[in-house]
């Protein structure tokens, strides 16, 4: 009597089918993790901006400042009592180490690829992308590497109206 210690063809086919089914269910969930991470990044930037505003407001009150505050050793210029929506100001507020050359004229069509984030500041509220609740002033946008500025970004808008708080938020439908 001879005993074979191998697998039959049917057993191998069943194992391949089971692995295929597992891969078909696991891979889409793994791919969505990147999108979930991008959503989390833009939401985190928005939350960090809100926290930074609290610190700036506290510093403004402590120093009785109107035009600038010292924030972690950096001067933050104030416009109508709130940080100017420029890239350098936001780098200091968020303590981000971004290169100063992340601007591109094709930000709606060319993905961010120079750094972890791209930043575009001092944009008039009428420029793309427009934010419904922003009806005046200037905006600064942050979007993650691999995305174009369009539907996956965080923003800070100084409405430049005395006593009116900035608008801070995010758009993550395209992440």
Automatic annotation (TrEMBL):
<keyword id="KW-0812">Transmembrane</keyword>
<feature type="transmembrane region" description="Helical">
    <location>
        <begin position="6"/>
        <end position="27"/>
    </location>
</feature>
<protein>
    <submittedName>
        <fullName>Type II secretion system protein</fullName>
    </submittedName>
</protein>
<keyword id="KW-1133">Transmembrane helix</keyword>
<dbReference type="Pfam" id="PF07963">
    <property type="entry name" value="N_methyl"/>
</dbReference>
<dbReference type="InterPro" id="IPR012902">
    <property type="entry name" value="N_methyl_site"/>
</dbReference>
<keyword id="KW-0472">Membrane</keyword>
<dbReference type="InterPro" id="IPR045584">
    <property type="entry name" value="Pilin-like"/>
</dbReference>
């Amino acid at each position: 009597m001879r005993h074979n210690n191998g697998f039959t063809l049917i057993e191998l086919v069943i194992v391949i089918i089971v692995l295929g089914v597992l891969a078909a269910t696991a891979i889409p969930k793994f791919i969505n993790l990147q999108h979930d991470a991008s959503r989390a990044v833009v939401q985190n930037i928005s939350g960090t901006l809100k926290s930074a505003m609290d610190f700036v407001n506290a510093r403004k009150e402590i120093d009785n400042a109107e035009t600038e505050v010292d924030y972690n050793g950096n001067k933050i210029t104030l416009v109508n009592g709130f940080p100017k929506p420029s890239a350098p100001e936001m780098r200091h507020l968020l303590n981000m180490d971004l290169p100063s050359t992340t601007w591109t004229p094709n930000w709606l069509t060319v993905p961010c690829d120079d750094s972890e984030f791209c930043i575009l500041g001092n944009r008039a509220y009428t420029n793309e992308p427009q934010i419904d609740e922003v009806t005046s002033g200037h905006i600064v946008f942050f979007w993650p590497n691999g995305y174009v500025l369009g539907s996956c970004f965080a923003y800070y808008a100084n409405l430049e109206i005395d006593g009116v708080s900035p608008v801070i938020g995010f758009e993550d439908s395209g992440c």
